[in-house]
Amino acid sequence: MNNFTEACCNHFSDNSSQLVTECRIFPSKAYDQNLLLEILIAGEAIDYLSLSSSRILLEPLVHYSLDKFCITITDNWDNYVTQIKPNEIIQQIKDILINVSWLSILSELQDLQRSRRIYGFGL
Questions:
Q1: Tell me, what DSSP letter sits at residue 120?
Q2: Is residue 31's pLDDT more than 80?
Q3: Rg (the chain; Cα; Å)
Q4: What confidence tens digit (pLDDT) does each residue in 48-102 have?
């Protein structure tokens, strides 16, 4: 598992520019400004996670993505390593990051910080 995680993290870091580019390819249908902003934030998250100092944050995403991916392909743990490629896992991570409601999360964090300043608690 450690070798596979390492391979996925290295593949993610080596291909982060391509992942960010994929995030920024928009279909021809119209998007609202908030969705475009969330996609840009996802691209920044990918860029940040590709740094070696962010490896501690990337590894749990690799494990989560591996778990999600394994559910879809087989019930036999022995087959996972032979069937799953690092590129499939990093694409799963990209999809997860694109589908996060970043503006909602950032708004909640801002509210918690405001509560901390006013009431002395929160974050």
A1: S
A2: no
A3: 17
A4: 999 999 999 999 999 888 888 777 665 665 666 667 788 888 998 999 998 888 8
CA angle 26, 41, 123 (to 5 degrees): 155
What is the rounded CA–CA span in Å between residue 93 and residue 11?
12
What pTM was computed for the model? 0.76
pLDDT of residue 123: 47
Spell out the residues 6+ positions from residue 83 whose beta carbon is closer than 8 angstroms to its own.
Answer: 73, 74
Q: Is 37 exposed, middle or buried (0-12, 13-18, 19+ CB in 10 A)?
A: middle
Span between the terminal Cα atoms of the chain, in Å: 34
In this structure, what token pair is assigned to residue 55? 């490896």
3-state secondary structure 36-89: HHHHHHHHHHHHHHCCHHHHHHHHHHHHHHHHHHHHHHCCCHHHHHHHCCHHHH
